[in-house]
Amino acid sequence: MRYPIYRFVPLPHRIAIAGSLVMVLSLTTGCDRDPDLALPEPYRSLEIPAERLVSDEARVHGRELYVALCALCHGWHGDGRGTRTALSTNPRDFTDPRWRRGMTAKRAYWVIQEGRNGTAMASFAFLSSDQTWDLVAYVLSIAEKGALVEGVDADATSSPET
Prior knowledge:
- This protein has about 160 residues and is mainly alpha-helical.
- It has one domain: Cytochrome Bc1 Complex, Chain D, domain 2.
- The protein contains eight helices and no strands.
- The chain has helices at about 10-30, 50-55, 55-70, 70-75, 95-100, 105-115, 130-145, 155.
- Helix 3 (about 55-70) crosses helix 7 and helix 6 crosses helix 7.
- The radius of gyration is 21 Å and the shape is elongated.
């Protein structure tokens, strides 16, 4: 009976070799992969309205939706520090540039429409496609421009007085 050669390599060395192999493979595979490929259909094949995502009008409308639907959990400034505290997981901090770098428009649309299993993020499937894209435009802009968008009445959308 032939024995595999790794049988003669001590266990700590095998673990180190396996760890190194996993690290190398993770660094070299998927670098050019589209992060939206993991999304379920029909979200994977959504047409992104690029002009709408940078539109001030869409961001203003998205801010209004955000204040009405999202601020309670995600905070008035999008920093994840909303007034609702008894949540199973912490809400996302949209002001974090690292979050923004890892988030795509399609993924944000999917999360808003479907919610996130295992988290407090509920589905907002009742929103129309246009409303969802406006909310995506606003949420994605928070890390870039801050929580307030020019053209929105700050008094109408600021946090309630305590």
